Amino acid sequence: MNPIFLEPIVTEPPRKEIYRRLGYREKTTALSAEERHRIEDAIDEAYGLVHLKAVGLRLPVLAINDEGVIIRGTRNVEIFHSKQLAKFLAPSDEVLLMGATTGKQIMEAINKETQEGRLNRAVIFDAVASEMVDAALDWVMGYFRHTLLRENRVLSDNRYSAGYGDFLLENQRIFYRLLNLVKLDVQITETCLLIPEKSVTAVAGIIRKET
After folding, report:
1. Distance CA 46, CA 58 (A)
2. pTM of the predicted protein model
3. Which spans in 75-118 are helix H?
4. Do β-strands 94-101 and 153-155 pair in parallel, antiparallel, or remain unpaired?
5. Counted domains in the chain
6. What confidence tens digit (pLDDT) does each residue in 123-180 have?
7. How far are the Cα atoms of 57, 75, 85, 102 from residue 193, in angstroms, in the given order?
């Protein structure tokens, strides 16, 4: 299969999650009207600077063992070395690889706000970008979940990203190559970090629905 590119993705900013990331708790954190207005203005401004793009790719699982997961890539066999990922994907006979990015404009704005000393705004912009790119992965999973229903297949509720547990960040190279993230204007560094910074990848499992 070939990657399916999804752009632009239009979704509202997840305000509840943004406030939580900023350290505010619903019903326990008191905000003045002025403070809430300041935060909401910054959220709206940051939202206008986020340009979500994403990609998803279904691939068959060839084997899962104690050492990791073997999948059939677009050209070659690929191996994710991770016991924890193997446990996560244990019931799956396919995987969904996905990636998303906010684009570079929001990161340029965050850097500018930081350099000019407006740290409160920079923190809010950063929270919006982080939650928006996560929401883009939710959107991708929803898109594929809908198409899988027609095949009597289901997508796992959760997803797993390189850099967590024993699923080393170096696996990011496999995501980058298979998802062709360069088409989303995303680059990868020698240390396997994605640029723009608010760019993410993840894997979810696909199983046949029991009848």
Report:
1. 32
2. 0.93
3. 83-88, 105-115
4. unpaired
5. 1
6. 999 999 999 999 999 999 999 999 999 999 999 999 999 999 999 999 999 999 999 9
7. 20, 24, 20, 15
Cβ atoms within 10 Å of 188's Cβ, excluding its own: 18
Backbone φ/ψ region at 117: left (φ over 0), alpha (ψ -120 to 50), beta: left
User: Angle at Cα 176 formed by Cα 144 and Cα 172, nearest 5°?
Assistant: 100
Report the CATH number that the domain containing residue 118 is assigned in CATH.
3.40.109.40
Host domain of residue 164: 4-208
Joined together, the tokens standing for residue 179 give 């998802």
Contacts of 191 (CB under 8 A, 6+ apart): 169
Q: What whole-number distance in Å separates Cα of residue 54 and Cα of residue 64?
A: 27
| DSSP code at position 167 | B
Question: Tens of pLDDT along 42-73?
Answer: 999 999 999 999 999 999 999 999 889 999 99
Other CB atoms closer than 10 Å to residue 129's CB: what's the count?
27
- Listed in sequence order, the residues at least 6 apart from 54 whose beta carbon sits closer than 8 Å to its beta carbon are 5, 6, 7, 9, 98, 99, 100, 101, 136, 137, 139, 140, 184
**CA atoms of 156 and 175, how far apart (whole Å):** 18
Angle CA 183–181–62, to nearest 5 = 130
